Amino acid sequence: MNDHETAIPLGVRLRLGRAAVQTIADRAGVDILHIKGDAVEPELRPLRRAGTDIDVLVRPTHVAAMDRALRAYGWTVYSSFANGSPFGHAQTYAHGMWGYVDVHRLFPGIGLEPGDAFTRLWRNRHTMEFAGTPCPVPARTEQATVLALNAARGRSDSLQDLRHVWFDAAADDRSRIESLVAELDARIAFDAAIGQLDRHRGKRDYRLWKAVSENGTRVEEWRGRVAAAPTLRLRVLILLKAPMVNVEHLGHELGRVPSRREIAREFFARPVRGLREARAKRRRPWGR
User: Fold this and answer.
1) How would DSSP label each residue in 145-206?
2) The whole model's pTM is what?
3) What is the pLDDT of residues 174-211, one digit of tens each?
């Protein structure tokens, strides 16, 4: 940074970044909903946390158009749908000025077909203004439900959100969330968030949500992925992928494109780390 440059505060950069992403979507004719972070109504998040990136949910049929538009305006893929999470739900893009945006093609835990789920959330949308740009956001109950489902993935920073939107919420608000959870076919993820996952023992997704919500080991997560796969073909593909190195993630850790030697080293290191994780979990005291 030279003497004439000034660092943009994170909160300001995120608001400008949201406006930039919305402008790109509008020009491309893409429907997006801004979710999480500062796109949540203040009463749902009394302790305001803007986050570190921008999250948008895109109408599934518009994902390819959004990808082309972002690339055209200088965004590059940082982490792909295939390698970003067990749910393959988001692709992360990076920009030198605006930082990161997570483009969601679905939201983990919502079992309703992604296009129908987006249409349901889009129907009651509101708008929030960022840097003078109107940005569509889900309605209040929809925002609260998204925050609760986000907490199902075991993230410590989302537990405060869960307490406020569910455990400390008024009875009417809880009833509206329950109705929307049913509408979105999101019961198993919602129950994982509120500590009632064991009601779903025996269901195909149970082991995956148990691993995700309880910070399970890599082995437990992959076993959950296999169990959750709806077809034999997908189970086989997941089993074949499990031992492979996530080259994107390795590159992020190294800060550069990994060499063949580094990829090979990581391939043999993965099972060793998996065994260590399993042993550490067995030694962990009960309740911790």
Assistant:
1) HHHHHHHTT--GGGHHHHIIIIITS-HHHHHHHHHHHHHTT-HHHHHHHTT-GGGGTTSTTH
2) 0.84
3) 999 999 999 999 999 999 999 999 999 999 999 999 99
